[in-house]
Design goal:
- The chain is α+β, with helices and mostly antiparallel strands and 111 residues long.
- The protein has helices at 2-23, 54-67; strands at 28-32, 44-49, 71-73, 82-87, 95-101.
- Strands 1-2-5-4-3 form a five-stranded mixed β-sheet, covered by helices on one side.
- A hairpin with an 8-residue loop joins strand 3 and strand 4 (82-87).
- Helix 1 (2-23) packs across helix 2.
- The longest helix is centred in the first third of the chain and has 22 residues, at 2-23.
- It is globular and about 40 Å long.
- The mean pLDDT is 87.
């Protein structure tokens, strides 16, 4: 039962982030992690975002997840991808990770 509830919370969190991005004009495309949508999604979503928008997209995702009661972290030592991690408890079952890519070659473009 808890796994089903966690899956629903994760879907709701992803939908809330997508709504916030849409409301703020952030163009994005989910590349991976929504195979079971709308019943469930993976804990890790890969999202393609324009290079010029990735900082704002990250900020909006973090604020949205915080507003939903997630504890949110943004790791800084990940070289090839920007990431937002959110958890509601102590394990992976109730967490969500958003990995931001700015190109389809595997990561965030660095200029």
């Amino acid at each position: 039962m808890a796994l089903i509830e966690n899956a629903r919370l994760r879907v709701g969190a992803a939908e809330a982030v997508a709504t916030a991005w849409n409301e703020n004009g952030i163009p994005y495309c989910v590349l991976r992690g929504i195979e079971g949508y709308p019943e469930s999604i993976g804990r890790d979503l890969d999202v393609l975002v324009e290079k010029e928008s990735v900082g704002e997209a990250l900020t909006i995702a973090r604020a949205t997840l915080c507003g939903l009661g997630y504890r949110v972290g943004v790791p800084v030592n990940v070289v090839w991808v920007r990431k937002v991690l959110g958890t509601r408890g102590s394990g992976w079952n109730d967490s969500i990770a958003l990995d931001f890519f700015t190109d389809l070659n595997g990561g965030v473009s660095v200029s």
